[in-house]
Amino acid sequence: MQAVSLEHKTITYFAKELSWLSFNERVLQEAKDPANPIIERIRFLGIFSNNLDEFFQVRVADVKRRILLNNLPDTNFDEDEALLADIQKKVLELGKKFNAIYAQILKDLNEHNIHVEQPEALSDFHKNWLANYFKDQVLPHLLPMMINESKDYSDNINDTMTYLFVELNGEKQHHAFLEVPTDRLNRFVQLPPEKTRRHKTIVLLDDVVRFFIADVFKSFFKFERIDAYSMKLTRDAEYNLDDELEEGVLDTMSKGLKQRLYAEPVRLVYEETMPEEMLKLMKKRLGVTGQDAMIPAGRYRNFRDFISFPNVGRGYLENKPLPPLQSAAFSKYSSVFRAISAQDILLYYPYHTFNHMLEYVRQAAFDPRVTQIKVNIYRVAKQSRLIASLVSAAKNGKKVTVMVELKARFDEQNNIEWAKLMSEYGIKVMLGIPALKVHSKLCVVHRKEKGKIVKYAHIGTGNFHEKTARIYTDFSLFTKHPDITEECDSVFRFIESSYLPFKFDHLMISPLNARSKITELIDDEIKHSEQGRSGKVTIKINNLVDKQLVDKLYEASRKGVKIRLIVRGMCALIPGLHQFSDNIKVISIVDRFLEHPRVMIFDNNGEPRVFISSADWMTRNLDHRVEVGTPIYAEHLKKLIIDVIELQFKDRTKARVIDAEQKNLYVRRGNRKKIRSQIAIYDHLKKWESQQLTGTKE
Q1: Does position 317 have pLDDT exceeding 60, yes or no?
Q2: Is residue 296 domain-shared with residue 437, that is, in the same domain?
Q3: With contact defined as beta carbons under 8 Å apart, do 571 and 659 qualify?
Q4: Beta carbons of 600 and 610 less than 8 angstroms apart
Q5: What's the pTM?
């Protein structure tokens, strides 16, 4: 923990990296929870593993860089060293829990006639089938990397893949890295039924390769014994970019992605049964240092593939689908523009269908009255209907402007390809502001109505991504409000000409006014409290680590403001400290959908001010990115958002208490109704849409 002095008080912050690990522990709790369907539990292990990979690529890599720069002024070498040790300790603790949960899940799968088997335990029938499968399907993809004693192999290891480190013992000893080709073959090999179709058998591709590994080498090497152990290398995701003027931005970014392959290693996970001499040799050949996290683990790497673990059993072994809801406000009209002209429209994914957003752009692409479309892209699907509509609009003679964020981490290559494609069709592609990532979720349409240009806008909390819109919860506002749409249009002008002055009276724009507006809104609640009125702040956010805003919440708490927070991930704020933060309550919800929206509700003495935003309360989002937050002016939409947030505070199934120890205890039910907020929200929205369609009220 870190501490600073403010107004003679000691303010403590929970280290954001350890807070993030606490969040991932909540994901692990979902894998452990027997109330969850068994297939969903094993998929949560995949989510946990994928999260941990990114944690090391980004968070741990950042800590390691700070340690390497310890000789620079204003660095906290001792603190960072201690933090890295704490991270290592927590990761090992979570790894032990992970292995125990996985073992239990395998037992539970057996009870449902799903068996994940080792090849050694198979019948002769299945071994023969597997031998043919290996020869015909697997062997052609296996390309051993034989080790030369004088070479460093770290640059040859792809950190998205699992490898086997192989040792051949005979007259001579040989070693090799062997990539398990999970990018070309299914990780989960389902065997054909032998006796009864009820009995389902799955073998992992890793184990297939291990079982037949002698067949890979026997034609070329003489050996009496062959051993293979799994390993995975993780690298720093913050690659360096050459700032060469003669290169275009797209070429520079492409080079940067190649540099990521050769970035410094930050974690080596290896099978804990690997002999010490093999481990020493592997470390040496990979250039792994004492500052890199060495993680002994079980038999398998890249558990993230388990996100796609197949349900080969009955339907009830995974979550029951929740059919996406149609918006009554859109459904009443054949034209999306007539619908938005009638009223502001709010959607909440994945409860609402994302098709309404796609239809907004599709209709704009061929509507003869539409003259221009502007959109900013951070992450989109690999086969994006949104981009297909934008290309269609360009073909129809519309002026199309797309701001593509090339630095969207792990989506850079996808965005590079989209930028090139759209440019080929005459779309004006903007590549942003060099020093700022553009993370806003805007889509503005210009439409000629009665001889004048009328603007329509979409402002959201999530990406224009068809796949994630089915699993992330996010708000989208569609509006024709002239002041808001004009300011949305100004955001694109700011991105193109950031040196010009811009004034935003309605929108919260990072890095221009978001921080000051949030601070002013909290100050207003402090004033209400000091004057004997009700001061209340309710925030739903992904990450809360900006110390300036944390300090402002601490100040508001000390002055009597009641503060409620829903924080999915990192939370540097420590609630419940006596006479300091005891007016602050924090919960976190992890369930079947990833909680992703950012919502701010300021009570304003009983006349709530409600905002949705693309920005987390992190310094990077407030000061180093272009983010957009919007007020909700329609009273019925304000009420809907408040109702949704209140249902989350009533959750007694998936909500955890965030406290000073980050213990992740579930919110106590007491004698209250057992509410699972995500299901309750779906039911609430379903009823709400029905009432909107029929015109009835609660």
Answers
A1: yes
A2: no
A3: no
A4: yes
A5: 0.90
Q: Does 313 share its domain with 335? A: no
**Dist CA 668 CA 178 (whole Å):** 49
If you write DSSP's letter for every residue of 474-509 in order, what string do you get?
EEEEEE--HHHHHHHHHHHHHHH-TTS----SSSEE
pLDDT, average across residues 48-74? 80
Domain span at residue 644? 508-694
Q: For residue 185, count other CB atoms closer than 10 A to its CB.
A: 16
- In this structure, the answer to whether residues 520 and 476 fall within a common structural domain is no
Is 323 part of any domain? no
Q: How many CA atoms lie within 13 A of 340 on its CB side?
A: 27
> Contact 164/213 with Cβ under 8 angstroms?
yes
Residue 61 located in a structural domain: yes
Contacts of 44 (CB under 8 A, 6+ apart): 27, 28, 30, 31, 36
d(CA 266, CA 308): 26
Residues 472 and 550 in one domain: no
Residue 102 CA, distance from chain mean position: 23
Do 313 and 332 fall within a single domain? no
Tokens of 666: 């579930």
Domain-located, residue 465: yes
Q: How many domains does one find in the chain?
A: 3
Task: Give the tokens for residue 29.
Answer: 């709790």
Within this chain, do residues 37 and 174 fall inside the same structural domain, yes or no?
A: yes
User: What torsion, rounded to 10 degrees, do the Cα atoms 469, 593, 347, 679 define?
Assistant: 150
- Answer whether residue 579 shows pLDDT above 90: no
Q: What is the CATH number of the domain that holds 470?
A: 3.30.870.10
Neighbours of 309 (CB within 10 A): 24
Residues assigned a catalytic role: 439
Q: Is residue 626 within 8 Å of 491, Cβ to Cβ?
A: yes
pLDDT score recorded for residue 382: 79
User: Are the C-beta atoms of residues 382 and 344 closer than 8 Å to each other?
Assistant: no
What's phi and psi for 6, nearest 5 deg?
A: -145, 120
| Alpha-helix residue ranges (DSSP H) falling in 233-378 | 249-261, 276-286, 328-331, 336-342, 355-366
State pLDDT tens for residues 511-551: 999 999 999 999 999 999 999 999 999 999 999 999 999 99
Pair 652, 674: CB distance under 8 Å: yes
- Residues ≥6 apart with Cβ < 8 Å to 295: 91, 92, 95, 267, 268, 269, 270
Contact 67, 80 (CB under 8 A): yes
Does 527 share its domain with 479?
no
Tokens encoding 303: 């558990």
For the domain that residue 191 is a member of, what is the CATH number?
A: 3.30.1840.10
Helix spans in 212-335 (H): 213-217, 249-261, 276-286, 328-331
**Of 283, 317, 351, at which residue does a domain stop?**
317
Which of 185, 222, 225 lies closest to 207 in space, CA to CA? 185
Do strands 399-404 and 370-377 pair parallel, antiparallel, or not at all (unpaired)? parallel
Domain boundary among 317, 348, 377: 317
Query: Of all residues in the chain, what percent carry a pLDDT higher than 90?
Result: 72
Token digits of residue 408: 């969207």
Cis omega (within 30 of 0) on the bond before 350? Answer: yes
Is residue 323 reached through a cis peptide bond, with omega within 30 degrees of 0 on the bond before it?
no
26 is a domain residue: no
Give the residue carrying structure tokens 């949960």: 101
* Whether residue 408 sits in one domain with residue 308: no
Cβ-based neighbours of 337, under 8 Å, separated by 6 or more: 363, 367, 445, 447, 456
